[in-house]
Amino acid sequence: MMENVKIRIKDLNLYFGKQHILKNINVEIPEKKITVIMGPSGCGKTTLMKSLNRLTDLNPDARLSGSIFIDGEDILHTSEDITKIRKMMGLLAQRPYPLPMNIYNNIAYGLRISGRKNKRFLDRRIEHYLRQVNLWDEVKDRLRDPAGALSIGQQQRLCLARGLAVDPEIILADEPTSALDPISSQTIEEKFLELKSNYTIVLVTHILRQAKRIADHVVFMYLGEVVEQGTAREIFENPREDKTKSYLKGLFY
Amino acid sequence: MDRLKKIEEGFFRVLMFCSTVLIAITLFLIIFSILYKGLPSISWEMISQVPKGGFYFGKEGGILNAIVGSLYLSFGSTFLAAIFGLPLALFMNVHLIRHKKLVNGIRYVLDLLWGVPSIVYGAFGFAIMVYLGIRASLLAGIITVTLFIIPIMVRSIDEVLKPVPRGLLEASLSLGSTRSETSYRVFFKQTLPGIITAVMLSFGRAIGDAASILFTAGYTDYIPTSLHQQTATLPLSIFFQLSSPIPEVQQRAYASALVLIFIILVISILSRLLTRKYQRNQINF
Ligand SMILES: Nc1ncnc2c1ncn2[C@@H]1O[C@H](COP(=O)(O)OP(=O)(O)OP(=O)(O)O)[C@@H](O)[C@H]1O
Ligand SMILES: [Mg+2]
Predict the structure, then answer these.
(1) With a 6 A CB cut-off, is A47 part of the ligand 1 pocket?
(2) Residue B228 and residue B142: Cα distance in Å, rounded?
(3) Is the complex ipTM higher than 0.85?
């Protein structure tokens, strides 16, 4: 039915302490497409994203059950090195977290820890990825300035560049444009449309129009459950569930 | 209602002002009295020579033995404490992030240890020395002082690491770095200014403490040339001179205190400068 499935989430349940946060999630995410996760605030979108690269491991109260298959391998029960799995996924968090170093090193960091230390190589890659996120012209004269001095929007783009630089297969983006002006949001959106020929993109957004512009596939969540999922056309033109309909009409956020 | 608020505001304002002034005056009085009593005895001879015969009866000589001994001792123990303390603090905040209870347990133990008076560390060090048949020495002093300042070092670095947001850890991990890489390349860099302050705090405790070294480092009129020799220290030098009935010697005690304060001042200015340098790359979350 579907093209290549990159990520298959099967019977995923997540608890924070006694709270049941993700309830029986079954989702298929197609390869090299943009999958948009939508749903009201607090419904578990960020949590779902974080379980994809097992950042939920860091939470002492989190308990996970079920499976997440990436390329057929269950990353929740694998002997594979967790850092390798994480490296496969670039994460763009809900707010940018630049590393405490200069702009250049923010991108070089990921490359260096994977053993690529050649200066000329780094220079070229860094320019390449900064250009890719349309940040190069703004920062090319101050690559040695601390990343914390950039504006939030610039930081967000820097984080995207940093994530792309480690050559992931999947991009997880959690409301990447929530801190950006319309123009920068548009550049990011265009970037995603461009990137999807090479990457599998999972995107959380609250902006309905944005979702309509870029989604190939939509997952609609409500109170920790996946209410409906399907191609963008199915969901936007012909939603089956009442909850999806009223959300799309803007009846709740 | 409004009037009540105004009175409350006024009351707290006066309270805060008074405490500020009181603390400032106390500090000023301490420094002033030490300057007043010590300054006349400060001389080049005082800080460039070791005690000659009869020094403790007011004859020639200086306290170079104590100055150098104190520097050896405090630098040595601060260095040792940092070597063990920094990794522990990072470990608690990066690797053990899932084990909240364990980390809180460690914190509790360290806080207890912080509260133990330094004389107890001295007695402990002494007991171990007796058991092993070792005599008082620079090395024994360094080890005892290290034990004494490790809780201070770890807990103050820990307090600096605690507020680093989870998101930074997540960001670093999702770039494919291990937790150790994250510790040393991200957390360390982010908190370096605070770590320097923590190390400085520990250094201050190390150089100023007398009780922990009373039995462990011994005392001598010479500058130690090996770790196995006894060493003089400024706090003990102050103590011995102050307990003398001779006024000149007592005055020299204040001069020695002045030297001690001066060293701490220099170190803290240096650490401030370093802090400023490393604040550049810190992210304000
Ligand atoms: N660390 C945590 N400990 C306990 N509960 C948590 C934790 N993180 C999130 N939650 C809870 O899990 C639920 C889902 O949160 P999540 O952040 O995934 O929502 P979201 O869909 O991303 O919302 P938003 O659109 O506002 O970002 C919420 O009820 C939240 O309170
Ligand atoms: Mg969220």
Answers:
(1) yes
(2) 11
(3) yes
